[in-house]
Amino acid sequence: MNYCVTYVFNFLLLLDTKMTSQFTLDHFDRNYLETYEEVSSEQTSIDVFANLTFRFTCENMPSGFYADMDYNCRIFHVCENSGYGFPVICANDTVFDQRQRICTDEENTDCQRAHEWYYLNKLSYSEEIESRTITEEITDDELKIQENEDAVPSVLPLVID
Predict the structure, then answer these.
(1) Residue ranges of the alpha helices (H) in 24-137?
(2) Other CB atoms within 10 A of residue 19 CB
(3) Which range is the signal sequence, renumbered to this chain (predicted)?
(4) Exposed, middle or buried, 103 (CB in 10 Å: 0-12/13-18/19+)?
(5) 13: helix, coil or strand?
């Protein structure tokens, strides 16, 4: 009987130790955090842009997001002030809306006119709102809608120095 109680006690103690060590950081292997770099540098990683060529270049472009009209706005480029940039694919059959600078449904965008909105990457968010209210005629109905939402919803360009 005494042996059985000791065995059960040791088993419960071992079980408790196993359960708590899963949830405590002192037993967490810090090298686990570095696996992203290890995985991303493996030769087995897929380069989805390997067979694509881009006419779009980030040279002499301010930092921001730019729709690639050659690929029907399904790809956009993230540009930095240095002239370096990289392409990004919009997910789930969406296209890049240059005016709002987000990936959205295709029926809400006009990819052929995307280049007309490239200048938005030069503006700060407050200047975008101001420029729309000055340059476009706003009806009373639009004014009511505008009170509830921003004039030009935006994703601010990522500034990387």
Answers:
(1) 35-40, 125-135
(2) 9
(3) 1-20
(4) buried
(5) helix
pLDDT tens, per residue, the chain with 161 residues: 566 666 666 666 665 655 554 455 555 555 554 444 555 555 555 677 778 889 999 999 989 999 999 999 999 999 998 889 999 999 888 999 999 999 999 997 899 999 999 999 888 655 555 555 555 556 666 655 555 554 455 555 666 65
49 CB contacts (<8 Å, ≥6 apart)? Answer: 87
Strand partners, 130: none
- Judge contact between 77 and 86, C-beta under 8 A: yes
Residue 75 CA to residue 1 CA, distance in Å, equals 72
Q: What secondary structure letter does DSSP report for 157? A: P
d(CA 107, CA 95): 9
